[in-house]
Amino acid sequence: MEKWRFYTPAELKPEGWLKRQLEIQARGLSGNLDKIWRDIRDSAWIGGSAEGWERVPYWLDGFVPLAYLLGDEDMISRAKRYIDAILGLQREDGWICPCTDEEIPEYDTWAVLLISKALTVYYECSGDERIPEAIYRMLRNYYELLSSGKIRLFNWGKARWFEGFIAINFTAQRYDEPWLKELAEILKAQGTDYAEISGLWKRPLNKWTYETHIVNIGMMLKSEAVSCDILGEEYSDRAERLHGILEKYNGTPVGLFTGDECLSGLSPIQGTELCAVAEQMYSYELLYAYTGESKWAERLETLAFNALPATISDDMWTHQYVQMSNQIACERFPGRSQFRTNGSEAHLFGLEPNYGCCTANFNQAWPKFALSAFMHSQSTVICAVQIPSSLDDANCSIVLETDYPFRNESVYRVTAKKPFELRVRIPGFARSLTVSGKAYTETGSGELSFEFSGGEKAELRIAFETEAEFVRRPHDLASVKCGSLVFALPIMFEKRMHEYERDGVERKFPYCDYELVGKSDWNYGYCGDELIVERNSPGEIPFSSDRPPVTVRTEVRKVPWELEDGFETVCAKLPAARVGYGESEPAELWPYACAKLRMTELPTVD
Asked: Which of 459, 418, 454 is nearest to 435 (CA)?
């Protein structure tokens, strides 16, 4: 099993549409939370009086790599100000979280696990030599507290025990001390064993539990990959087995599992929390790096190109807490919520709809995805995901020019400084693969391999075709997919803006709340077999909700499809009948990510 290592932002940079996406993020909420949101601006982590638990570590986990990927000196200096304050408040005994001695036994140490992860990210980006010692002292203190019985894992820390292994592995590479393995063993022993409780995932309930919480589950998928080496255990691909259960009973067309806020079954009108998108992506990135298995990178692509941009506004100033496959409106529910354990505003686009964790945590998704484009192992470099990037390390420099996934052609401009091997992962759905104009037969592993000698320059042009297809969904519905892109019938909408203050948190343009009011018909079924793909290059906003870069033309007919009982802005889970009426109509399907209101799962009618 080949293991890959990530590059740092000093070596790997975004280009093309990916860089534009990160620049939008920097101009939006991610790049400004420390200016406008009190839980970051006035956090107890930096000596203030606002939240002192998960929100600053969550934000730093994405803000830091975003700053360094873009080389934004202002953002870098602002990140350093937070790190300086956090390190300055670390106690002599190593405890780092902002609480008193008396509060420690009742303080959920999920925050310890999270800040340790965020600090490793800061070190990888900045090279700040204060960080390894700070993490060492923090983990040593944590070990002493746990091993002595002064504290135990509970609640979020118990559910997310494996998150600490990012920092434990980081520290074990620098300090060969037996207590690190002992800490790892304590965390696993006190943490939740998700394989033992996977039976709970087969029947959703309107009940909140840690064991079925969708974000915990998204994080959990990487647990064996990050923990088995230091624990001395053999890797068994447990993630694949658990993924299969989750997909069978809670899957969506875009590779997510429903969870609003806990697992919610197969209904297309249940939602999925944005934090889960970010964490599921991160799990897939680490799973691919650990195993080298293409399935994790392919699943990562599907999330990144569909679920992530779908639930964030074009300007990235607002986001949803939960997204739905069939989402005909994003308006407040006047009565009870449609969601199992989320409130009536969870699907609005806003500053902190439903709860503020996603406001802080969604920031990590795009930057860490950008850092997954290329990985390396000794003198071998692999392009894990074909997204526009430039790489410069000791062995080579590579410029990857591509509009993938909108167009299926990539140009690699390679300069070999030393002899090295370049591998390119080819998705399993690729057809008619060509390399520099010549037909190529795919290898069994789905990878192309190219050997380069020192001082060599070369250009590789890799292209393939993808076919749009209907994908069968539960309840005798269908979705449309072409490569990694899922398509949906878009619903035109008007925005209804709300500026207000609640609990001392101000919402004002551009970080106010928006309801999306549907203005076009949605009650359709597919009535033809033809799917015609039309491609353009991505614009300034890659996943634009006005100008989609790829569309699919097909035929639809109206079907008798009512509203969900008790709601005026939610379609029924299923149509009343599978019989079309009226004439067939041409329809233009948009990428799921571009259609903020959409019907993704439709029936097929004659």
From this structure: 459
Q: SS3 for 310?
A: helix
CA 149 to each of CA 130, 141, 153: distance values in angstroms, whole numbers, following the listed order: 29, 12, 10
Global confidence as pTM? 0.98
Cβ partners under 8 Å of residue 554, min gap 6? 480, 526, 528, 530, 531, 532, 586, 587, 589
Both tokens assigned to 465: 């075709």
Max intra-chain CA distance, the chain: 75
Among 398, 509, 413, smallest CA distance to 460 is for 413
Pick from 137, 122, 130: which is nearest to 177 by CA?
A: 137
Name the nearest CA neighbour of 288 among 423, 433, 135. Answer: 423
Give long-range contacts, CB 8 A cutoff, 24+ apart: 495-498. Answer: 496/331, 498/350
| The pLDDT value given to residue 338 | 97
Candidates 54, 66, 2; CA nearest to 29 is 66
**Rounded to 5°, angle at Cα 26 from 20 and 32:** 160
Beta bridge partners of 556: 526, 585
Residues 6+ positions from 133 with CB-CB distance below 8 Å = none
CA gap 335, 567 in Å, rounded: 8
Among 606, 598, 604, which residue's Cα sits nearest to residue 268?
598
- CA distances in angstroms from 496 to 257, 516, 571, listed in the order given: 29, 6, 20
φ and ψ at residue 448, rounded to 5 degrees:
-100, 145
Q: What angle do CA 162, 69, 377 make, to 5 degrees?
A: 60
Reported confidence tier of residue 135, pLDDT bands at 50, 70, 90? very high
Which residues neighbour 474 within 8 Å (Cβ) at sequence distance 6 or greater?
251, 266
- DSSP conformation letters of 192-258: --HHHHGGGGGS--S---STTBHHHHHHHTTHHHHHHHHHT-----HHHHHHHHHHHHHB-TTS-B-
* CA Rg value for the chain: 24
Phi, psi of 421 (to 5 degrees): -110, 135
Q: Torsions phi, psi of 114, nearest 5?
A: -70, -45
Tokens of residue 25, six digits? 């993020």
How confident is the model over 222-258, as pLDDT tens digits? 999 999 999 999 999 999 999 999 999 999 999 999 9
Q: Strand order of the sheet with strand 431-435?
A: 12-14, 389-392, 396-402, 409-416, 457-465, 431-435, 438-439
Q: What is the pLDDT of residue 94?
A: 98
Which residue is listed with tokens 């590779």? 255
Dihedral of alpha carbons 62, 65, 70, 76, sign: positive
What end-to-end distance do the CA atoms of the chain give, in Å?
48
Of the candidates 194, 115, 104, 202, the one whose C-alpha atom is nearest the C-alpha of residue 158 is 194
